[in-house]
Specification:
It contains six helices and eleven strands. The chain is an alpha/beta fold. Strands 5-4-1-6-10-7-11 form a seven-stranded mixed sheet, with helices on both faces. It is globular, with a radius of gyration of 19 Å.
Length: 217
């Protein structure tokens, strides 16, 4: 079984300049994801995709890591991740991978144990993809939107915003740490979400997503 871990790390960032290279507890942010991937029992190939030579040179210090220079059009502020994954798989199309694991470098507290536990959960279920999640901080059922007349209305109904949280169904948010999908299913529709997607719950602490300086602190 061939399992590719793709770590997409562009050079630009609005929230934190050069975010993927910023110091996080003594080493560059991206190194946390590289090390977690290399320690996994199941990942056979680790690839860093970047438009930035400094990031690629840092990744190359680990001899087991493959690096791919990303086209500039896939490294814009509004670039989606899926085309980056497609580009990586096309460059490495001769390797015939079975599974793809997306590891975003902004999740430094996700460990190899998390990755392997998530992968084992996927293998032990009749599912085609998996997304790591944590329990939603603000329950979405308690949210409002504005109707066509400019008045507040509950996003589900007008009762749920006033329910105790304990009486509402548990909801989850993707934490950005782990995405796993069968390569053949990703290539078919170029999406990480399928009709048979299961979840892997992580704690709020390990779900830390680095976006702004407050997250670093």
């Amino acid at each position: 079984m061939k399992v590719i871990a793709i770590i997409p790390a562009r050079g630009g960032s609005k929230g934190i300049p050069r975010k993927n290279l910023v110091n996080f507890l003594g080493k560059p942010l991206i190194e946390w994801s590289i090390e977690a991937a290399l320690k996994s029992k199941y990942i056979t190939d680790v690839v860093v995709s970047s438009d930035d030579d400094e990031i690629l040179n840092l990744a190359k210090k680990q001899s087991e890591v493959l690096t791919i220079k990303r086209p500039i059009e896939l490294a814009q502020d509004d670039s989606r991740t899926e085309p980056v994954l497609t580009h990586t798989l096309e460059v490495l199309k001769d390797k015939n991978f079975d599974y793809l694991i997306l590891l975003q470098p902004t999740s430094p507290l996700r460990t190899s144990v998390d990755i392997d536990s998530a992968f084992e959960k996927l293998l032990n279920n009749e599912a085609t993809s998996l997304i790591s999640v944590c329990e939603s901080g603000h329950h979405p059922y308690k949210s409002f939107n504005i109707n066509e007349n400019g008045y507040l209305q509950g996003i589900i109904n007008n009762d749920f915003p006033f329910y105790p949280r304990q009486k509402l169904p548990k909801t989850f948010s993707a934490n950005g740490a782990i995405y796993i999908i069968k390569v053949k299913d990703f290539i078919r529709k170029h999406t990480l979400f399928t009709r048979k997607t299961i979840h892997f719950e992580m704690s709020k602490e390990s779900s830390l997503d680095i976006d702004v300086n407050k997250d670093l602190r």
